[in-house]
Automatic annotation (TrEMBL):
Organism: Gluconobacter kanchanaburiensis NBRC 103587
Keyword Lyase: yes
Any Pfam family: DeoC
Keyword Lyase assigned: yes
Top enzyme category: lyase
Protein name from the UniProt record: Deoxyribose-phosphate aldolase
Length: 228
């Protein structure tokens, strides 16, 4: 899809409408789901504790329910991440976004990183898995290594960022990820995608999904203010 063919509905189908703040209230989650229905976003993306509520709110809609796992640090045991993924899916999640173990990746312990991702991938079964790299904390070599591990395992997407670290998605990182995984695997840009211009730049760089809490601004072509 090129930028010249992008309509409001085209943008909407790329957006994971996101609310991951630890102090998010029930009313805010309800508003998130209502907006996702209204604007036709691909999904809502929430912490796993909000999955049961969102599953009820999104019944009989086309909006997918996505849950984050091991969020936002990625530093817990692989079995804990796998358990969280299974529980979220049992409660209604239909996509999972996990944070890989950043410390293990920086150690160069690629076997441990692969085991961490594979356990969650196996727990997901047929539910698509996206793996968050937290690119702001990684070298070019680490980003490339993580993408290759994800590609070898067969996850659905690699994703730039949690939105809770020192930086979010950049055009350069999305380009690197797309070049590494090739044309067929999903690439999700998240963290700081606040407006139409940023969305256009990420799509042009190779993103096929956008994680943002500024989805309404992107669809309307106005300015967003949220950090995610």
């Amino acid at each position: 899809m090129t930028m010249t063919t992008m309509t409001a509905s085209s943008y909407a189908t790329l957006i994971d409408h996101t609310l991951l703040a630890p102090d998010a209230t029930r009313a805010q989650i309800e508003s998130l789901c209502e907006d996702a229905r209204k604007f036709g976003f691909h999904s809502v993306c929430v912490n796993s504790g909000r999955v049961p509520l969102c599953a009820r709110l999104l019944q009989n809609s086309s909006v997918v329910l996505c849950a984050v796992v091991g969020f936002p640090l990625g530093a817990m045991l692989p079995d804990a991440k796998a358990f969280e993924a299974r529980q979220a899916i049992a409660q209604g999640a239909r996509e999972i976004d996990m944070v890989l173990n950043i410390g293990w990746l920086k150690d160069g312990d690629l076997g441990a990183v692969e085991d961490d991702i594979r356990k969650v991938f196996e727990a997901c079964g047929n539910v698509p898995l996206k793996v968050i790299l937290e690119t702001a904390l990684l070298s070019q070599e680490e980003k490339t290594a993580a993408c290759r591990i994800c590609q070898n395992i067969g996850v659905a997407f690699v994703k730039t960022s949690t939105g809770f670290s020192k930086g979010g998605a950049t055009v350069a990182d999305v380009q690197l990820m797309r070049e590494t995984v090739g044309p067929d695997m999903g690439v999700k840009a998240s963290g700081g995608v606040r407006d139409r211009a940023a969305a256009d730049a990420m799509v042009a760089a190779g993103a096929t999904r956008l994680g943002t809490s500024s989805g309404i601004a992107i669809v309307k072509g106005t300015a967003g203010t949220s950090s995610y």
